Automatic annotation (TrEMBL), chain A:
Protein keywords: Membrane, Transmembrane, Transmembrane helix
Protein's membrane topology: Multi-pass membrane protein
InterPro entries in UniProt: Spore_Ger (IPR004995), UPF0353/GerABKA_families (IPR050768)
Name of the gene encoding the protein in the UniProt record: gerBA_2
Protein name, entry field: Spore germination protein B1
Keyword Transmembrane helix: yes
Family: Belongs to the GerABKA family.
UniProtKB/TrEMBL annotation, chain B:
Gene Ontology CC annotation, any one: membrane
Keywords: Germination, Membrane, Transmembrane, Transmembrane helix, Transport
Entry's localization field: Membrane
GO biological process, one term: spore germination
Protein name per UniProt: Spore germination protein YndE
Similarity field: Belongs to the amino acid-polyamine-organocation (APC) superfamily. Spore germination protein (SGP) (TC 2.A.3.9) family.
Name of one Pfam family that matches: Spore_permease
Transmembrane segments: 16-33, 45-67, 87-107, 127-146, 153-171, 191-210, 222-245, 279-304, 311-328, 340-360
Upper taxonomic lineage: Bacteria, Bacillati, Bacillota, Bacilli, Bacillales
Superkingdom of this protein's organism: Bacteria
Membrane topology: Multi-pass membrane protein
Length: 512, 369
């Protein structure tokens, strides 16, 4: 940090000495200014030529690789060269180029070197005319980007196969395609001191509660960081409680999920260069929902929801329950099962806590290892892990077969959860519960469960209680919570979002 | 930060309706059938249970009715208007002290029962401490959060109680319920002297929490309805206990309700001893009782010492509660203190109700309706 700021201070001194931050009327000086500011990198392209009868000197400046070359050629270079009947006066010529000659769609004027450098560094092209202290900034953003693919972290059986990509324009385009409504709003912000990244706050005017938007914007304006490489930075900066294990903002790669959230009156935050968009606010119930619930018929949707609550229970409580039951309350287990557990634990030298800790830690290692490795080796890890843990560890007498079942079930349950961020939360909680179970058995588990509940009811996400609509309870919202009512019955937008437009979500009525 | 209307520190009348059964149902229900059965014959205990229940419903309604006349005012504020400030402070202090005793009693009770059903060798002091700390964690949070917890726990608590009632129907022996109405009048008076009022205590919270309700018009009805829940549940549990064990056995069991859970066999053969599961879940009910009692203590003290921070009061109260809870030497002493405390609580509530109503009438204190 120290070295870096020192470097920047030095740099600043140079700035003051070598080049001026204003755009002057002399083209050569202007170009040398921009060269000096960027220290003449190899990807900086400066094309100088003359136009018009009076042979005015002009220059086109851009950075190669992040612009659309064909577009520049077709819509700037060609137009400028082919232009005829250009005025002789420099200012008039400049206006004519702006208004008539260049056929680029996005065009605006810049007045300082900062405008120029920010523009070309984000892929715009800058037009200089000798003798004019203004520049034209033309939107030519392009360059290589990933094609739209199916999102890997949230693939569904039924539903759109489109996922967000790194390019924010593509992402806003995808949301627009889902919601072709004049009330869809995109407000743009720039985040980052060094690298100015585009950040878009999206919401449905007329549906969303205005207080919610104000609060999101207020928090976004407090962001003061060098750079936000991923929306996780934004999430951690604007979330309510950084101590809480629960995610207070959802993230998704799916445009259908984002647009569904918009129509429910939530706010979506998109950041350039990341396919993960943020959805605020989050509630506990929302963490266990997937867009697919609504795509299948309601009976399946409901069953899957209930299955997820079971999965959540297993992924948090199962290892703790194993510890509590085996070491404190063996009498609670049916006697036949208790005997077989006792028999299988006969050779295990560790107490149940240690056994569970060893196994869950191994499971976490496997999970992490599987993530890092390429798919082909990842499968090998799965096989090796399965064999080593499942067979060898048991026959070596390190763990009991029941423990293997417990850990396997626990892992499967946490993979069954629709969002990775809640799966992580439950993994963290699981260790706390294991500790409580080791000390106090079932009593510890229930006290821990009560504590989690106390935490949840006190947690807020952008002014919305995390426990809603369970408590404060809204019966209307229970239709889309643990159960998923038939689509035709879910007529209102979520009450807990206090939307402006409460009516008839399915008939798509819009506030004018 | 701006919050949505429903997310602020105000509560609705529905929260009041849930809060009443939340505070009423605590450790009392676990031993209630024994205390009733020991002084009545057959299943006659349901009569005092019902009459006491109706009385409790009426008192809840009356307190809520009175307190809802002073919208948005704390107990101390309107009591000061009616019976001068010093008297109001004394009354508030008495509520605070009794609430603290209730908390301590619940914590001591749960430690004793846990020791009996979940642990063998762990000392009571060690069992009580984490429970008290969780209670402290709960009261340190927002007050509206407590009502949200009630809302989340109440369905779980009610369903576990109903599961017990439903699944023990198979063991019901109608002969045990006979003979009907054979208890002499002295038996009933003994009930009242022994236990009658204890089980339904908790309406005292209405004095305080009604100041948080936005539209208290419907609150009296909500409070009365809320009180009906424990009345119905108690009668079901009592009749099931008598029906399954018979009067003689019930009066000799220490915690007949938990023993009733022992009889229950949940199909599927997954739980061998259901009573531990029942008790573990019932810990949630005891927890919210203890939490709300402690919160009332804090609420009352905070009204008197306005400039003291809530957390400071909590940190002062916590060790006091712990020592008060650990003070009695055995179960007999705990029960004795428990019944003295309940009587004091009942007397205090009724005195305050009568005192305030009468004085307000005489002095013509205006209600803001």
């Amino acid at each position: 940090m120290l070295g870096r700021s020192f470097y920047w201070q030095n740099k600043k001194k140079n700035t003051e000495e070598n080049f001026s931050l204003e755009i002057g009327t002399n083209l050569t000086e202007n170009l040398s200014n921009i060269r000096k500011m960027l220290e003449d990198p190899s990807d900086l392209v400066i094309r100088e030529f003359t136009i018009g009868k009076a042979n005015h000197r002009i220059a086109i400046v851009y950075i190669d690789g992040i612009v659309n070359n064909i577009y520049i050629h077709d819509h700037i270079m060609e137009d400028l060269k082919n232009a005829s009947d250009l005025p002789v006066d420099k200012q008039e010529l400049f206006d004519a180029v702006d208004k008539e000659v260049i056929t680029v769609t996005g065009i605006e004027r810049g007045h300082s070197l900062d405008d120029v450098s920010n523009a070309i560094l984000s892929g715009n092209t800058v037009f200089y005319l000798d003798g004019v202290d203004q520049v034209l900034i033309m939107d030519t953003i392009g360059g290589e980007s990933r094609a739209i693919e199916e999102p890997q972290s949230e693939s569904l059986i039924r539903g759109s196969k489109e996922g967000f990509v790194e390019n924010i324009r593509t992402n806003t385009m995808m949301i627009r395609r889902y919601i072709a409504d004049p009330n869809l709003r995109f407000s743009t912000y720039k985040v980052g001191r060094r690298s100015k990244k585009e950040l878009v706050v999206s919401y449905m005017d007329g549906i969303v509660n205005p207080d919610m938007v104000d609060e999101v914007k207020r928090r976004l304006e407090t962001i003061d960081i060098d750079d936000a490489p991923e929306s996780g930075y934004i999430e951690q900066w604007i979330e309510d409680s950084f101590l809480s294990p629960f995610p207070q903002i959802l993230n998704t790669e799916r445009p259908d999920k984002a647009s569904e959230a918009l129509l429910k009156g939530k706010v979506v935050i998109l950041l350039d260069r990341t396919p993960f968009v943020l959805i605020a606010p989050a509630t506990f119930g929302g963490l266990l929902q997937s867009p697919e619930d609504n795509y299948w018929r309601w009976s399946l949707g409901t069953l899957v929801r209930m299955l997820r609550y079971l999965a959540a229970f297993i992924s948090v409580f199962l290892p703790a329950l194993y510890i509590a039951l085996v070491s404190y309350h063996p009498g609670l287990i049916p006697s036949d099962l208790a005997f077989s557990i006792a028999a299988s634990r006969d050779e295990v030298p560790f107490p149940p806590v240690m056994e569970a800790l060893i196994m869950t830690a191994t499971m976490e290692l496997l999970r992490e290892a599987g993530l890092r490795l390429p798919t082909a080796i990842g499968q090998t890890i799965g096989i090796v892990g399965g064999l080593v843990i499942g067979e060898a560890a048991v026959s070596a007498g390190i763990v009991s077969p029941i423990m293997v079942i417990v850990v396997a079930l626990n892992a499967i349950a946490s993979f069954a959860l629709p969002s990775y961020s809640i799966a992580i939360t439950f993994r963290i909680l699981q260790f706390g519960l294991m500790a409580a179970a080791a000390v106090f058995g079932l009593y510890g588990i229930i006290l821990c469960y009560i504590m989690i509940n106390i935490h949840i009811v006190n947690l807020m996400s952008f002014g919305v209680p995390y426990s809603t609509p369970f408590a404060p309870s809204f019966m209307n919202d229970w239709k889309d919570l643990v159960l998923r009512a038939p689509i035709a019955m879910m007529k209102r937008r979520p009450v807990y979002m206090q939307t402006n437009d409460k009516k008839l979500m399915n008939k798509g009525e819009r506030k004018q | 930060m701006k919050r949505f209307k429903y997310a602020d520190e105000r509560i609705s009348e529905r929260d009041i309706m849930i809060a009443i059964p939340s505070i009423v149902m605590g450790v009392g229900i676990l031993s209630m059938p024994k205390q009733l059965a020991s002084v009545t014959k057959g299943a006659d205990g349901w009569i005092p249970l019902l009459l006491g229940g109706l009385f409790a419903v009426f008192i809840s309604w009356a307190i809520a009715k009175f307190a809802s006349g002073f919208q948005g005012q704390t107990f101390l504020t309107y009591a000061s208007k009616i019976v001068t400030k010093p008297v109001a402070i004394v009354l508030s202090l008495m509520f605070a002290i009794l609430s603290i005793f209730v908390t301590a009693y619940q914590i001591r009770k749960i430690s004793n029962i846990s020791q009996q059903y979940l642990f063998d060798r762990t000392p009571i002091e060690v069992i009580a401490l984490p429970f008290l700390l969780v209670v402290v964690y709960a009261v340190s949070g927002s007050r509206a959060g407590l009502f949200r917890i009630n809302m989340m726990f109440m369905p779980i608590i009610l369903s576990i109680a109903l599961i017990i009632v439903v699944f023990s129907v198979g063991w019901l022996n109608a002969g045990n319920l006979m003979p009907v109405l054979q208890t002499p009048i002295t038996g009933y008076t003994q009930v009242i002297a022994n236990t009658g009022a204890i089980s339904y205590l908790g309406f005292g919270i209405l004095w305080f929490y009604l100041s948080l309700v936005d539209k208290p018009k419907k609150a009296p009805k909500a409070a009365a309805l809320g009180m009906c829940i424990p009345v119905g549940l108690y009668m079901m549990i009592f009749i099931m206990c008598i029906g399954v064990f018979g009067n003689a056995v019930t009066s000799n069991l220490l915690y007949p309700t938990i023993e009733l859970a022992k009889v229950v066999e949940i199909p599927g053969g997954f739980f061998e001893r259901f009573e531990s599961v029942f008790f573990v879940i019932w810990i949630m009910a005891i927890f919210i009782t203890a939490t709300m009692a402690m919160d009332i203590g804090i609420f009352a003290l905070n009204a008197i010492f306005k400039n003291t921070e809530k957390l400071k009061i909590i940190f002062i109260l916590t060790p006091i509660i712990y020592f008060v809870g650990m003070f009695p030497r055995d179960v007999m002493e705990v029960d004795l203190i428990g019944s003295i405390m309940s009587w004091l609580m009942l007397i205090l509530n009724i005195t305050v109700l009568i005192l305030l109503t009468v004085v307000a009438k005489i002095r013509g204190v205006k209600r803001n309706e």
